[in-house]
Specification:
This protein is mainly beta. The protein has strands spanning 2-6, 11-22, 31-39, 41-47, 50-55, 58-64, 68-70, 77-84, 89-96, 112-116, 123-124, 128-132, 140-150, 157-160, 166-170, 174-178, 184-188, 194-204. Residues 1-11 have low confidence and may be disordered.
Length: 213
Amino acid sequence: MEQVDIIGRGITRSSQEMEINVPAKVGNNPGFASFDVLGNAFYLIECAGEVQIKTDTSPYKTYRKSTGENFPGDQTFQRLEIRNYGSETKIKIWAGWGEYIDRRFELLEAPTKAMGWDDANQEVPANDHIDVVPVSGDGVIRRKAVIITNLDPNENLRLEDTNGQTFMTVFPRTSITLPVSDTVRINNDTGAAISCNIGQINYVEQSLITIAS
């Protein structure tokens, strides 16, 4: 704890560093934690995922590791409230006066998770197309890549960008991995449906990573 005496004002200002377990959401109700602390700034030192934090003088906002807020000097708070819409998460938070200085530079990508296409019958209909739209929400930060496998032994699949321009062909019995975060259109220019596998690799919050038993 850092103690700072404000000379001539008779005020002692302190900063605190705390570890808190924030419960998981139950149904549509977020997990909740709170604590009393006097200050004008807070900073998330560690946070697996993202949480929402409010003070007794400001509304909820979303924060993740290495983020926080420094309020104007006269806008002090006496309480922090934290809610969590993901799985149970442990946070380490600094709160109090002044500024938490963190100049660490971490060259780490966010965790990734493979997500299959939601269509049980994965095929592109005859003379038609499928738009592979990026997944959003529920802890997904953004897409890292699209994986397309053409299962047909004879016919090609043609890929277009969002402007309708062809940029790649997936040949019969081959797979491609595209490091594209935007929508990809898969075209079938033949008179019969073409079977395929479609998957996406997404950057996600740490709380989405699970291990199957």
